[in-house]
Amino acid sequence: MSQTHDQELTILLNALALACKATARACNKAGIADLFGLAGEVNSTGDDQKKLDVLSNDIFINALANCGACAVLVSEENEECIIVDQANAGRFCVAFDPLDGSSNIDCNVSTGTIFAVYEKKGAGPASAEDILRTGNDIVVAGYCMYGAATELVVTFKGKGVHGFTLDPSLGEFILTKADMKIPEGGGKKIYSCNEGNSSNWDEPIKKAVAAFKDPKKPYAARYVGSMVSDVHRTILYGGIYIYPADAKSKNGKLRVLYEGFPMAMIVEQAGGVASCGMFKGTIQRMLDIVPSDIHAKCPVILGAARDVNFVLDQYKA
């Protein structure tokens, strides 16, 4: 991390790594520490909060707000953005989902954290406007997956995608996957989506998924229900991850700032393609959209160019 040649960014990344370690420990001890189940509250987007949602959110807020490198924090679990006290503020803004896939917690399926880091616009007081920008302005994006192993995947703009695995005996992340790339040619033929929503999809998405299931050369279907796990597999093995808009959620369901943008940046840096499909009347590259508010949503289509471009071709037909 010191190779960033930016001391403040190094401090921020160390704070993120510390929060990931603490969250991994909480996930590992959830059954023993009675951290399974609902907390009795809902988050900013109306989802029921699990106990681990609340704990992981507190962990990340405490780590980031007190590291001296952050000015603005946006969390899925908080309705409003958090403006760090000027005396302890730095020059970065962080959007994060502290525990993605938390509906899987109680059955011990992989969950994860997703984050995106922006540099504050100017020297004035911090505000939400410092983070309501296109994904092209992201400085660092990453995710941490809590599964059989704890893996932290990070990308710096133009510097590739790199994977680190937490060594429990050292308490440190060790570089295990340098310069991660989606397999050349698109890799394995895998499609990943929640087909329970298929009756509400638009026709191009239905046609694309039907083609993936062509009995002559069918793709394999793989869907965990945790974006971190599904995207991680897509980067390593190839294929496509789809969470489209539908008749019930016309703007999609995944949040732009702390789900869509960071995953789009990681996938593009790994040699893939990330699109919203047909969104607000036009086919859009995901990183080009401008979020209207901190919890704005968008459709997500990302993965190998072979498969994403095939889906986009259905809109052009």
TrEMBL record:
EC number of the protein: 3.1.3.11
Cofactors: Mg(2+)
Main location class: cytoplasm
Domain Fructose-1-6-bisphosphatase class I N-terminal: 5-177
Catalytic activity as recorded in UniProt: beta-D-fructose 1,6-bisphosphate + H2O = beta-D-fructose 6-phosphate + phosphate
GO BP terms: fructose 1,6-bisphosphate metabolic process; fructose 6-phosphate metabolic process; fructose metabolic process; gluconeogenesis; sucrose biosynthetic process
Any GO MF annotation of the entry: metal ion binding
Pathway of action: Carbohydrate biosynthesis
Source taxon at top rank: Eukaryota
Keyword Hydrolase attributed: yes
All copies of domain Fructose-1-6-bisphosphatase class 1 C-terminal, residue ranges: 188-311
PANTHER family linked: FRUCTOSE-1,6-BISPHOSPHATASE, CYTOSOLIC, FRUCTOSE-1,6-BISPHOSPHATASE-RELATED
Similarity remark: Belongs to the FBPase class 1 family.
Entry protein name: Fructose-1,6-bisphosphatase, cytosolic
Organism: Eutreptiella braarudii
